[in-house]
Amino acid sequence: MNISSAEEESAQEILIPADIDWEMLDKSKFFFLGAALFSGVSATLYPVVLVKTRQQVAQSQLTGIRTAFSIVKHEGYRALYRGFGTSLMGTIPARALYMAALEVTKSNVGSATVKFGIPEPTAATIANAVAGLSAAMAAQLVWTPIDVVSQRLMVQGSHPSCSSPCRYVNGIDAFRRIINRNGPKGLYRGFGISILTYAPSNAVWWASYSVAQRFVWGGIGCYFRKTDDENNDNNTIRPDSKTIMAVQGVSAAMAGGVSALITMPLDTIKTRLQVFDGEENGRRGPTIGQTVRNLVKEGGWLACYRGLGPRWASMSMSATTMITTYEFLKRLSAKNQDSLM
């Protein structure tokens, strides 16, 4: 794949490895290695997600660092992984569904847009956005019930005013009690707003990632063009694997920050819908309107951005880790390793 180093007037080209589409992957290796790699990534980032969740349901305003220290002080280090087992059980099938939907959609939409005569950079951005949207919607079918259960476990141990009064022994107990109390619908509480949160978030992220990559590669091309020796007639730049991973990581962090900022209010509302049991109206859960009114009453409209710091950090770190892991996974799973360069 050739990317122009800056604007069209620049004569240099950056040669990076060709993208690996769905047809080029060994599917069994792709899903097996993906489950192992992403389980490790989830374990690393889980404490940040837990802190963010605690902040979103808390009625008092504490920074992410103070919240983390408070959890460790009063509940011990193990509390940072409360609900992780349940979350991991959902991560594996949800990630498999996400990756399959992402790659199939990206491959098909990318081919279709190019056939319509759309320029390759624009086609790649559109394909990434549509793929992110469809992948998020597919994964939420699995992830929402796991999210509801794991978030209930995450907030246990916090101040009573911050969480559901129910106390669960483990994920299975939480699952059983939610079913008994609310039926299967209880496991899909917040499903609609989860789609409204994660589908646009993923579309924005993948589109931003595509644009950010071209922006970063363009900057690298300009740098090499300006510092190139006058006697050097070679106008082709061949970045090594470390440079490629660094560009992917920086681009992912940029995209993650943009996505976190745009979708933060929806994520806060979604978390509260999934955690609180709605004591105000009996057995029914709180409505979106009630949730928004309570947030505004507690801290104004800025309360909708409670937990932004940890979510920004989590999404940026997660995006950087996930995309470098994901690209590495695709190269490990390619059927023909010799055709990657």
Automatic annotation (TrEMBL):
Its main location: membrane. It holds the Pfam family Mito_carr. It is a multi-pass membrane protein. It comes from the Eukaryota. GO terms for biological process: transmembrane transport. Solcar repeats lie at residues 26-108, 123-215, 243-332. One of its GO terms (cellular component) is membrane. Keywords: Membrane, Repeat, Transmembrane, Transmembrane helix, Transport. The chain crosses the membrane at residues 30-51, 186-207, 244-264. It is found in: Membrane. Belongs to the mitochondrial carrier (TC 2.A.29) family. This is Solute carrier family 25 member 44. The gene is LOC111274671.
